[in-house]
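Page 47, continued from p. 46.
Same chain as before, 123 aa.
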Amino acid sequence: METIAMQAYNRGRWVLLLGLLAATAACSTRQGFEQRMAAHIGRSEGDLVAALGVPTRTYQADGQRFIQYDRQQILADAYPGWGWRWGGPTVEVLDCHVTFEIERDRVQSFTSRGNDCVARPPS
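Result:
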């Protein structure tokens, strides 16, 4: 039998966990991601690669160069039925694809798509 003190302790742990998750989610936003990527506009292609690493793919046409970065995570709940998730395992795919347009060795613009293009705003 669980005591009142244990119930309060467990409730407090859940409140703390949910609070931390909410705080983390609140910090990383689509707007923060857009601000971080926009900071690369006007920089050289070399500076972009130095900052973000080797791109996933590149494409060149009509004097323009496109550089794409991809990020993908697969989250799986290995313990179905634990807590409030009943009915089998859950799998979630998080991805973000960012394409930079390079012209005359300078970043001109970028586009992004995906459900995980989030970041903290630059400070």
